[in-house]
Design brief:
The structure is a single chain. The protein is α+β, with helices and mostly antiparallel strands. Helices cover 13% and strands 31% of the residues. The protein contains one helix and eleven strands. The protein has a five-stranded mixed sheet, with no helix packed on it. Strands 1-2-9-5 form a four-stranded antiparallel sheet, with no helix packed on it. Strands 3-8 form a two-stranded antiparallel sheet. The radius of gyration is 21 Å and the shape is globular. The termini are far apart.
């Protein structure tokens, strides 16, 4: 009985000693918000989402660890392309790709994922990335129809957080209808 008690105490003490190392390796992701505003009407020649990342946590965040998703419908087009028009962190520090969803919804069958290079730097607690102006377009030259796009909201003519802005990627499955999100 005494040996069993010593074993239990030793295991408990070892667990307590290792907890700080485990905690450091398994920290909660920082709290980030993406603010969104519409830069074009629903039937413009190109979609023009404007995005801004806000660090609402108490930790510095490397932008190279952040990705933003903008969900939309392809309107029958086989491909979409994007370009960065303006970014406070520099358009050369913005990368992106359009991805088709495995299980499309009525408001999104693909998304534009925006990521940052290491040159984009970091965000201190409470800091903003500054505006990121994008163009999402069809290479065939046809106008996209944003009326049924999950991330689009014509009423957001100034930066808005929340339901039309962003959600952490880790909080949702790939196919849930979320507007923009972060990884």
């Amino acid at each position: 009985m005494f040996k069993t008690l010593l074993l239990v105490i030793a295991v408990a003490a070892g667990g307590l000693a290792l907890y700080p190392e485990w905690r450091a390796a398994h920290q909660a992701p920082p709290q980030l918000t993406v603010r969104y505003k519409a830069g074009s009407p629903a039937t413009a020649a190109v979609a023009q989402p404007w995005l801004e990342v806000v660090n609402t946590s108490k930790k510095r965040v490397l932008l190279s660890d952040v990705a933003i998703r903008y969900y939309f419908t392809g309107d029958g087009a086989s491909s979409y392309a994007f370009n960065c028009v303006q970014a406070a962190v520099g358009c050369s520090n913005i990368a992106g790709e359009t991805v088709a969803l495995a299980d499309p919804t009525t408001t999104a069958d693909r998304y534009l994922q925006i990521s940052f290079t290491t040159g984009a730097g970091s965000l201190a607690p409470g800091a903003k990335s500054g505006a990121i102006g994008l163009q999402l377009y069809r290479p065939d030259g046809r106008k996209p129809d944003q009326l049924d796009d999950r991330s689009f909201n014509a009423a957001d003519t100034t930066f808005q957080p929340g339901s039309t802005g962003a959600m952490p990627v880790d909080s949702f499955s790939e196919n849930e209808e979320v507007p923009c999100d972060l990884r």
